[in-house]
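Shipment paperwork, digital attachment
Item: protein structure file
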Amino acid sequence: MSADTRDKSNSDDEERGLASRKMRSLRSHEQLIGLIILAAAFIIGSLSVASGIRSHNGGSRANQITITGSAEQAVTSNTFQWMANVASTQATTSAALTQLNGWAAQIRSALLAAGALKDEISFGTINVQPNELATGAIASFTMNQTVTVQSSRLSAMQRVLGVSNLLLADNIPFIAEDPQYTFNGLKKLRPALTSQAAANARQRAQAALGKNVKLGKPISITVGQVSVDAPGSVNYGSGDFNTSSIPKIVSVVVYATYSTG
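Attachment content:
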């Protein structure tokens, strides 16, 4: 092979090598650019989804309002109930029963004299409790009985309450509880108060939004407990059931969420 031929062959080989290296370099750059584009697209897509979620959630909260509404009404108790207990302890059941029956007769007479009616007085079942010594032997028996006065005549019952001191002064162990005054019209009153409380919640919601924002339909309305409190109480809406006072305040609270437009 001549020198010219060898030179030409070497030149062709160099050109082919150079072209091959350029091709590999171009492919590497193309792959790198492709990866960069793919990564950028993934990041942009993630940000778009996250932005969309935030926008949706934020919009949902921004287009609703939750507020409390309440309603109350003054009522007067219409039922009086007074309970007491009397007990006798004697060596035998016969002696305890005799003493207990005698006291029951005196209690009934005192209540009637104070203004209670026969059908307003009731005596419970007599309970017997044996009292044992440390040895296990029975030393005595205790018999006790409950007495209940229940009436709708609240004014007349004020005099009846004085019977407790009279009986104790006669050595009759008449152990009385505090009288209870209740209002038995809650079942009928609750629906009306609930409706008023819901209307109050809507008024308050509209007032909070102002005239330029339209209040939509209710999303949810939760009704709280009915509360019965003494006048002037700070526990409205707490679910209390006051039985100590004759005048009362019945209240209902609702928790309402409305859409806004």
